[in-house]
Amino acid sequence: MREDRENRDGRNGPDERDLHDDRTDASRPSRRVPPRGRRARRWPAVVAVLLALSLALVLLGRFFQLPGLGDLFGSETRDRSGPAVLKSIQDMNRHEGAVGTFQVVVDLEKDARFLPDAIRGTRTLYVATGSVSAYVDLAGLGRDAVTIDEKRTTATIRLPHARLAEPSLDPERSYAVSKQRGLLDRLGDLFSDNPASEQAVHTLAARHVGEAAQESDLTTRAERNTTSMLQGLLRALGFEQVTVTYA
């Protein structure tokens, strides 16, 4: 009986303000804060979209020649080389009578024992263009190298045989056609100070060019041209007969 009166009087019942507050909170829209993990997952997608847009711009400017997009991502070459330093000077007391230009295709292959080429090994196909000059050395001529008669109308000149100079490769006309490397060689180039060095190919190409020059008639042509040069020079000085011999 006592509890019923208290309930009717509203002493132990819910307060009206509490009911009002509950209704107000229930009617308010909930504000959820997105977790940090979801924000972090958005960055890879944004980066992928930016890369795709950049690639699309490059392809549009490259293949469709759209104005303003051709050089948007173009490369720029800058020469930061220092000044050339003079190391030495050598007097050239020789006459170059002929120069030959040669081209050779170098096929250099390096294999490893007990390993397939796909794992370890290289094969380089290189087209080399080089030149070799033939010359007559005039530095060691003595007083007896030239004989002149009393009337100064006849002269005899004795010269050494012509020689071949060192081969010189032309970098603008030499190029690598293909280069195949094994997996271990590719990994080694990543950690090497001089990756994919072609020094061995250049050395082999220069050797082949030198061998081709030796089999040619460069020295014979150089001696013939040197003889013509000396005969023309001495005949202009008044000599009627000029003989040039090689020993």
Quick structural overview:
By secondary structure, the chain is an alpha+beta fold.
Averaged pLDDT, please? 77
What is the CA-based Rg, rounded?
44 Å
Euclidean distance between termini CA atoms:
149 Å
Q: Largest sheet, described in full?
A: 5 strands, antiparallel
Can you write the helix and strand succession as a string?
HHHEEEEEEEHHHE
Q: What is the approximate shape? A: elongated
The number of helical elements comes to: 6
Helix content: 25-40%
β-strand percent reads 15-25%
Tell me the total number of β-strands: 8
Poorly predicted parts = 1-11, 22-26
Structural class: alpha+beta
Give an overview of the whole structure.
The protein is 37% helix and 25% strand. The longest helix is centred in the first third of the chain and has 28 residues, at 36-63. The strands form two sheets. Strands 1, 2, 5, 6 and 7 form a five-stranded antiparallel beta sheet that branches. Strand 3 and strand 4 form a beta hairpin. It is built from six helices and eight strands; from the N terminus they run H-H-H-E-E-E-E-E-E-E-H-H-H-E. With 247 residues, the protein is of the alpha+beta class.
List the helices and strands and how they pair.
Elements: H1 2-9, H2 16-27, H3 36-63, E1 94-111, E2 121-137, E3 146-148, E4 154-159, E5 163-164, E6 168-169, E7 175-181, H4 183-190, H5 199-215, H6 218-236, E8 241-246
Parallel strand pairs: 4-8
Antiparallel strand pairs: 1-2, 2-5, 2-6, 2-7, 3-4
